[in-house]
Amino acid sequence: MEEYGYPNEDAIDRMKRQPKHWANLIIIAINILMFVVVELTGSSMDTGHMLDWGASWFPYIQEGQVYRLVTSMFLHFGLNHLGNNMLLLLFLGDTLESLVGKWKYLLVYLGGGILGNVCSCMYEWHSADFYVSAGASGGIFAVMGALILILLRERGRIGDLTLRRLGFISLLSIYHGFTASGVDSYAHLGGLLGGFLCGALVYRKNGRNHA
C-alpha cells in the first residue's frame, strides 16, 4: 500500500529546478489551438477546408506555396489523429528537449519534419499520385530519429528509454504506415532520417547541449 501526502521541501526544490520543456509544450499547444480553430470554422475532416488552412498538397507546393511544408505539420484530420500524435510527442519531445535544449529541439522537430514533407512530395511527384496530407507525425518521427542517434552514442540507454524499445516502436510505426490506408509513410521515413541527421548535428556528449 502506498501513502500519499505533501512533498517535503527537498522534493519541491528538485521539482523547481527541473527544466521546463517550453518548446515542446508550445508546439503541442499550437497543434491543439489550430485544431480548435479549424473545427470552429469548418471541419478538420473536410480536405478542402484543411487546404484553406495550409494542409500539404503537392500541386500547390509545386506552384510556390512552400509554406505548406511547415503549416501542414500543425494540422490534424480529426480528434483521434490529434490525440494520438500529441500523446506521443508529449513523452518523446520532452525527453529530447531535456537532452539538447529548446533551440536545438526546435531545429530537430522543424527541420526533420520539413524534410519528411519534402520526401513525401518527392514520392508524389514520382508516382503522380497526389493527396492532401497533414499532421505532426513527420516532426514526431524526427524526434524519434534524433533520440535513436543519441541512444546509439549513449550505449543504448537514457534513463528508462532504451534503444531496443524505441527502435521497436519506430519499426512498428513504419510498418503500420505502409500497411494501413491514409498514412503518409514517406513523411514518416523522411522525418526519421531528418531527425537522425539533425541529431548528429546538435547532440554533444560533453554536456554542452542546453543552448
Tell me what the structure shows.
There is one protein chain. Helix 7 packs antiparallel against helix 10 (185-202). This protein is mainly α and 211 residues long. The relative contact order is 0.14. A two-stranded antiparallel ribbon has the order 1-2. Mean pLDDT is 85; it is low at 1-17. Helices cover 68% and strands 2% of the residues. The chain has 10 helices and 2 strands, in the order ααααααααββαα.
Strands of the widest sheet, in order across it, are 1-2
Q: In percent, how much strand structure appears in the residues?
A: under 5%
Please state the average pLDDT score.
85
| Class by alpha and beta content | mainly alpha
Return residue spans where pLDDT drops below 50 for at least 5 consecutive residues: 1-17
Number of strands: 2
The termini sit apart by: 43 Å
Count of individual helical segments: 10
Main sheet makeup = 2 strands, antiparallel
Instruction: Work out the radius of gyration.
Output: 18 Å
Helix content: 55-70%
The global form is globular
Give the topology string: H per helix, E per strand: HHHHHHHHEEHH
What features would you highlight for this structure?
about 210 residues; mainly alpha; two-stranded antiparallel sheet; 10 helices; disordered N terminus
Short summary of the structure?
By secondary structure, the chain is mostly helical. It has ten helices and two strands.
